[in-house]
Amino acid sequence: MSDRLTDPTGPVSATTSMVRLEGVHKRFGRLEVLQGIDLEVKRGEVVCVIGASGSGKSTLLRCINLLEPAEQGRVFLEGVEISGAKGLNDVRRRIGMVFQQFNLFPHKSVLENVTMAQRTVLDRPKQEAAERARSLLERVGLADKLEEYPDRLSGGQQQRVAIARALAMDPHVMLFDEVTSALDPELVKEVLDVMRELAREGMTMIVVTHEMGFAREVADRIVFMDEGLVVEQGPPAEVLDSPREERTKRFLGLVLEH
Amino acid sequence: MTKLRVMLLPALAATALLAACGGEPATDTVATGDGGGVQTIEAGTLIVGSDIPYEPFEGGDAPDYEGFDIDIINGVADRLELELEIIDTPFDTIFRDLGQDKFDMVASATTITPEREKEVAFSSPYFQADQSLMVKEGSDIASVEDLAGRTIGAQKGTTGATYAEDETEAADVRTYPEIVDAFNALQNEQIEAVINDFAISKFAEESKPELTVIETIPTDESYGLAVALDNTTLLDAVDAALAEMITDGSYAEIYEEWFDEQPPEGFREGE
Amino acid sequence: MDAFLSQYFDLDLMWRSLPEVLGGFWVTIQLWLVASVLSLIWGLVLSLLRQLPGRAAAPIRALTIVYIDALRGIPLLLVVLLISGGLGALASEDVIADWIGLPRWFGKPDPFWYGVFAITLTYGAYMAEVYRSGIEAVPSGQMQAARSLGMSYAQAMRKVVVPQAVRKVFAPLLNDLTALMKDTSLVLVIGLAEVVSIGQDIQAETFNSSALVLGAILFLVVTIPLARIVDRQIAKQQIRYQRV
Predict the structure, then answer these.
(1) Under an 8 A CB cutoff, do C192 and B11 touch?
(2) In the predicted model, is pLDDT for residue A98 greater than 70?
(3) Which of A154, A195, B82, C221 falls between 20 and 30 A from B117, CA-CA?
């Protein structure tokens, strides 16, 4: 029973590239949300994506785990192309996602939320799934809430369960879609703490966020998006303190430092 | 107990509302008709209830119904100097409706029975009827005795239904709102026999060639025209009209047209 | 007033005809239970077919919509008559086997099963629309979360979306089941001896309508408690969702 959130002995491919997007376009009706994204995230990297609403950040994440199929361009996971592939379910279990609205299953208990996909998708026996769930929930500080239903938890607690639920599948990369934006301010820290821990253990993470303090502290790289394109990217100190592009400067000027 | 009463109240109220449309039994305070001093619900018109279709006694489409009964009541209305209005009505509630003054008279191939005579008044018989046993060709049923344990059909509220239930050993007697439904079920082999008035079943053979009447069940039944129990003036007038139609041969004419043969004794011209 | 009471509330006749009327009501109940279960299942199947994702499934979706429109657009009485007449004719002409065209399964007469078919086909269509509204009321994030965990569309529907959808539409479904129970009487037109038919036959024999009133009371014994259960469910749901 691992003390960590992640399983370091899990199977990973030899290549260091975890996620790569090449020329990804995505359109909703007439609206072109992604206008040609090229991005690579290496194994163990923590990339924070920042930008205004409507810049395409959420869509970017959904194109990575193929919840939204890209119209144009290619997506690679660990060096293997996954865009247009069959067997998407198998691909998706290697990519964990945490949502702004938590999306816990309200008709299931906390424990059941974390074991359901393990049993259905990974065919893990009930005992094993429950033990993995228990240890994860303990690590995120919710060992005493196993039998509770989501509607009795605070937002911060629900989000931590959501993280545990995604981690239970032993993903190779984790996607975070503004996971603290819907939380009351006093609940944000507990979630960010868990994410910090994850980063420390070497999980590859792509984090869409407004939390600049967190980004500065934890990110290996910051990517700034605007109007469906990657405008600028680089180490946090660079992008946040001395951005090159006009649009980046304007955005950062508008965003208050937390 | 209070809760039960509270629950029953809406039930009673609902049924009360529904039945209130029924009205009181016939009284004498109706409009005076024009013909022969007979009182009818609507002055100058004889309103007759009939379950259509029941060929060859009544059939066709409104307002030009056709049939033996139709011709007979046309003759009666003429002699009473009344207009005729026919209302298509389900058979199993036809006597109740008569009692509730929905019409003056019922002409619907209606058998005179002692039970019915407690509820309505019948004219003198105007048709001699028997029951019949009808099967589909290829059936192994040859007589009423063979009906033991079988599934058979009849029309709701008819003497055929009563006969099927009381006088046969059939396991399942299905009653249908219209006799045509029973014929269809027989055609589809969903039932194995139909017990119904001879004339009707015989007539149905024409349009349903695979169905045959294999036995006449003599039941000594007669048809009568029915009026409300206390409507003696109308009843007398109707009887008089019928008697005249028999005597002057118009009855025989109508009978021959629909049944291709002379009427039985007692109904021929001059009698 | 006396005449009215004796015509419709002849307690002595009600008592004497009680065994027969109860027998008919038992047929009603059986028809109701069987058709209800089948309609609930068929309705769910229809609603899922109607929502099948993907371009390849477009003809299935279209056919399902046509079916639902048709069965909701034709009176149940007509469906009963057509099923009974149609299947019977096909069976008697040996186009289809007798066991399906003249179904007498488990000792129940064929009008019973024709009734089950007709009601299931029709009420399934109504319930499909109820299920659909339930499924659409489940937030899309649920499906996204399930799929992002690697669950297939079918798994996500089965374990996440449908259970929530059904809970949401519990009350409207119960309402449909109550309506279904009342509609079972329509099957009397093809000769089924259910409670209204029995009441009519007694009425014709005795010239008294009390057996029909007795039948009405028996219906209320079932439908009124059902209505209260529905009310309680709706109240429970209100309380639950106030927390959000």
Answers:
(1) no
(2) yes
(3) B82
